[in-house]
Amino acid sequence: MKNSMTAVAGVVGVTVLVGLSVSGCQTESKQSGSGTSSSSASSSASSSVSAQPADYTALLIKDTDIKAPEVFTASPPLQNPNGKPGAATSFSNPDSTHVIGDTILILPNASDAAGVLEAAKKALPDAVANATPEPVDVGTGGVTVSGNSPDGSKSVTVLLFTEGKAFTTLEFDGPPDQPAPPDFVIDVAQKQHAAIKNGLPSG
Fold first, then answer.
1. Residue 127, Cβ neighbours under 10 Å: how many?
2. Which run of H or E residues covers position 100?
3. Which of 36, 88, 152, 185 is 20 to 30 Å from 178 at the Cα level?
4. What is the pLDDT of residues 172-203, one digit of tens each?
C-alpha cells in the first residue's frame, strides 16, 4: 500500500518540499547518554527531558472527523515531519483511491507562518496543473486550488491556511478529473482549523 502526499512549504524564508509517506512505522525519538556513569546518565536524562521537542500530533484531526459516504482511516501520526516542528498524517478510503494528506508546521511566530504561506502559494503550480488559487474562508490567508496533478495521474485539491504560528497544508487526492467536492474540503479544513485554534499553546 502506498500513501504519498506532497505539500509545498517554506520555512523561515527557505522553501522546502514536505513529503509525507506513510508506508511503515517511523520512530524519531533518540536517547543519548546511555552507558555512562550513573551521575552523568542522570544529568543527561534530566537535560533530555527539558530539551524534548513538543508533541504537536494532538493538533491533528481524527478520522472520525471526516464525514463522507465511505470510511476514511488515519495513518499513524508523524511527529516533526522532515525534522520541522509540527505533525502530519494521512487518511485513506478502503481501496486508497481517495487520500487526504494533513500537514501542520509550527513556526516561531505568526509572521513567519504567513511568510511560509506566501511561499507555498507560489509553489502550487508544482502540485496542480494550471492552478488558479482562490481565497477561502478558513483560518488566516486561506487559499485553495483544484485540478489534476501535472502528470494527469490523479485529481488534486490543496488548501492552505495559517492559525497563529501554525501553517497547515491539506491535500485531497483522487481519481483524475474527480476532485474532492468543495463543501467536503471546506468541512475538513474548518475542523482542522478549529483543532489548531483550540489546541495550540500560545507563545
1. 21
2. strand 99-106
3. 88
4. 999 999 999 999 999 999 999 999 999 997 75
* Residue 108, domain CATH: 3.40.1000.70
Angstrom distance (rounded) from CA 153 to CA 132: 19
Domain that holds residue 79: 69-199
Q: Give me the number of domains the chain comprises.
A: 1
Type of residue at 89: T
Sign, CA torsion 27/31/35/41: negative
Which H/E stretch holds residue 48? helix 38-51
DSSP character at residue 177:
T
For 181, residues 6+ apart whose C-beta sits below 8 A from its C-beta are none
* DSSP one-letter string for 62-82: PGGG---SS--EEPPPEESGG
99 assigned to some structural domain: yes
pTM of the complete model: 0.77
Place of cell 525519538: 29
Give which of 169, 181, 145 is closest to 66, Cα–Cα. Answer: 181
Give a yes or no: residue 116 inside a domain: yes
